[in-house]
Amino acid sequence: METIGTLIIAKYNYWAVVVLIAIGLYAMIAKKNLVKKIIGMNIFQTAIILFYVSIGAKRGATLPIIEHGHGESTHMVHAADYINPLPHVLMLTAIVVSVATLGVALALAMRIYFHYGTLEEDEIQKKIIGDEPDKIDSSG
Amino acid sequence: MIWQLDLIILLMVVICGIAAISIRDLLGAAIMFGAYSFMMCLLWSIMGAVDVSFTEASVGAGVSTVFFVAAVFRTTRRTRD
Amino acid sequence: MKRLGLIAIIIFGGLLFSITFELPDLGDASSPASTHVSPYYIEHTLEDTSVPNVVTAILADYRGYDTLFETAVIFSAGLACFFLLRIPERKAPKARFYRHLTTGLTLRIEKGGRIPEESKEFERIDSAWVPNDVIINMTCRLVVPFVQLFALYVIAHGHHSPGGGFQGGVIFGAAIILFAISNNLRSTTRRLSEKSSALLGSGGVIIYLGTGLLCILLGAGFLNYSGLSVFPGLDPVSARSYGILIVEIGVGIAVTAVMVWIYYNLASAGTQEEGL
């Protein structure tokens, strides 16, 4: 019982990452609405970011801003006292890029809506086939 | 890190994520996605990633929600799933 | 499709779940990710760059190439939105709507007729019904300058506290977007036009790139800010600190402009006439 408790405390963040990845991937595969697919993509992205941040966490350490770093006084800095800053840097840029890609994805969805009049994937497919009736046989 | 607090917020994150993809209204889904982003930002600030959570609070909960609402406003709220 | 997707997700999730047992424990200080390069960053940031916030120092100095090209990615995303949505020729809308300011009457003018924009008596409103809400207008007008000031503080104080170019830029952009939501898109584009937001976006990237090239001209490597120490009053350590500040300002300008630009195109569906 004791070992199960320590196992849960040691791994629960990774399990949450797995659940969130599953939610995002399910939305991207099974949902037919394009905006729902984009929301799923963003949930997937945040799950990956959560994974990186969990890897960088350290028990008993503080924020990666060096204490008494202002002024002239110099003292020894121990790496074990500060959380690993490298995953934070990588993910910080990833978040801002994710909002830029979100803008592009929404722009694409809007173009599709203006052309086909709907955001549902199956209705768009019907309209594509309806536009070109001779393509029905070749597309199966 | 306080793991009890962590677990509660993780639960909220998962609930918000499921709600965001299952609401049958795109405007509601966009707002739920904003709530999801904000919960995620709380989680990261508990885990000590202050810069990341600052970015997520301004980007995920702020600007991307506005983008979603703008796109839904210009297209349609209707969704079948 | 739904059932197939669910089966695929369960198999995939099970595989990921089994992998989690191999990963290092949460908060383990001796995990591989925390033992290779990150101790160097934590222990040497202060003596190399005199920046207490390690994240800022790594972002703009140690991994400057990464951030440079991320900024370029953001700018090209704004460009992609522009090319996807912007409608090049200005088609006149079917009808324009004006509100008489003193009486609140709404006027509908058809067939391209218009009242001059600088008219004191009439104000153009969007064709989607917009209530004349004085409280929201005035509250947002009052809040916007403080949000912008906070954004500048976040950029300038990123060396010593959480923050930096990305966060400050997004907050500055969000302030302008707030103004556009609470008033209307036309009065926002009069203050920050589409052309100037595009120029600012590329200008931010050019500031970043120019800092790197200046370092080459001064005899150091690309983006090695210690080359800036030829300027009077700077030693190599503080030169790196100032280099980080210049780069963060460039990133902030680029991010602000691109956020506003994407918002203009998304909210008006490319016409830049009527917004959210």
Characterize the structure shown.
The complex is a heterotrimer of chains A (140), B (81) and C (276). Chain A has 140 residues and is mostly helical. Chain A contains five helices and no strands. Helix content of chain B is 81%, strand content 0%. Chain B is built from three helices and no strands. Chain B has helices spanning 3-22, 26-46, 50-74. In chain B, helix 1 (3-22) runs antiparallel to helix 2 (26-46) and helix 2 runs antiparallel to helix 3. In chain C, strand 1 and strand 2 form a beta hairpin. Chain C has a domain at 49-87 and 131-267. The interface between A and B is large, with 51 and 44 residues.
Largest interface: A-C, 58 and 66 residues
Q: What's the rounded overall pLDDT mean of chain C?
A: 87
Question: What structural class results from the helix and strand content of chain A?
Answer: mainly alpha
Largest sheet of chain C: 3 strands, antiparallel
CATH level 1 name of chain A? Mainly Alpha
What's the overall geometry of chain C?
A: globular
Span between termini of chain A: 57 Å
| Gyration radius of chain A, in Å | 23 Å
* Ends apart, CA distance between termini of chain C: 36 Å
- SSE sequence of chain C, one letter per element: HHHHHEEEHHHHH
Helix content percent band of chain C: 55-70%
Query: Would you count the extended β strands of chain C for me?
Result: 3
Low-pLDDT windows of residues of chain C: none
Per DSSP, the total helix count of chain C is: 10
In order across it, which strands form the biggest sheet of chain C?
A: 2-1-3
Shape type of chain A? elongated
Counting helices, strands and paired strands, the structural category of chain C is mainly alpha
Q: Runs of chain A with pLDDT <50, length 5+?
A: none
In which range does the helix fraction of chain A lie? Answer: over 70%
Short recap of the structure:
Chain A has five helices and no strands.
Note the main attributes of this structure.
heterotrimer; A: 140 residues; mainly alpha; Helix Hairpins; 5 helices; 70% helix; elongated; B: 81 residues; 0% strand
Topology:
The complex is a heterotrimer of chains A (140), B (81) and C (276).
Chain A: H1 2-30, H2 34-56, H3 86-116, H4 121-131, H5 136-139
Helix pairs in contact in A: 1-2, 2-3
Chain B: H1 3-22, H2 26-46, H3 50-74
Helix pairs in contact in B: 1-2, 2-3
Chain C: H1 2-20, H2 32-35, H3 38-49, H4 54-62, H5 64-85, E1 95-100, E2 106-110, E3 122-125, H6 134-156, H7 165-182, H8 185-191, H9 194-217, H10 236-267
Antiparallel strand pairs in C: 1-2, 1-3
